[in-house]
Specification:
By secondary structure, this protein is mainly alpha-helical. Helices cover 56% and strands 9% of the residues. Helix 4 packs across helix 7. It has a domain of 142 residues: Orthogonal Bundle (Arc Repressor Mutant, subunit A), CATH 1.10.10.
Amino acid sequence: MTDDIDFTDISALKRIQPNTVVEKFGGLINSSFFDASNVLGTLKIKGLVDFTNAVMGQSAITVTDEGKRLLEEADAKSSELFDNLDYTLLTSIASGKRTERDVAQSVNIRSKDLAMHLNRLEVQGYMTPNFRNGSVELLLTEKGFSRAKVPFQQEAIGAAQQSNTAQPATQATPAATVQQQRATTPPPQTPQQQAPQAPAPDLSKSAPSGGKVVYALVAVIIILIILIALAYTGVI
């Protein structure tokens, strides 16, 4: 495929239907038969269309495989994101440049790349082509005019800010997360605190109480008195 493809070629190819004939093509591009023939002749030289004999002496227009590949490439690139070059082309059109040749003077790119970006602007609704007398006039839509008034860098920053504000407000900051972890984590224990403490001995079980000792002494004394009395009386 040649690199001398321009936006007029893509716009003309998109208007060709399976039943389009040479004699009626001028009405599709708002041009006279002579101007339409010049456009078709250019497409024929670039290998994008071919002509076949139709009924009643009319010549049918057939898009070649090369032309179909060009339309497929243009369709694929039209869905890509709006970029800095698109913005430059919009501002150029907004400044008063109404033809593809005038716009090409403000950017130093291949005519095919320029054609692809202009087609993207058309498909995404920023610009509309107006065929007249075999040439294309570029007209901004309301959407394209509004977009051209916003600097591209500022627009990118605004999109990033909107993405940040769209995050949940309850998301904790790193500092708050650290403070929360410190508050919920218990302080480290010293070796003395970590060693298990032995249970205190129960003194009530190991040592007899004072009352029990007195009772035992009294009992021993009574027994001694009884033994002495029995011995005195001669019983024992």
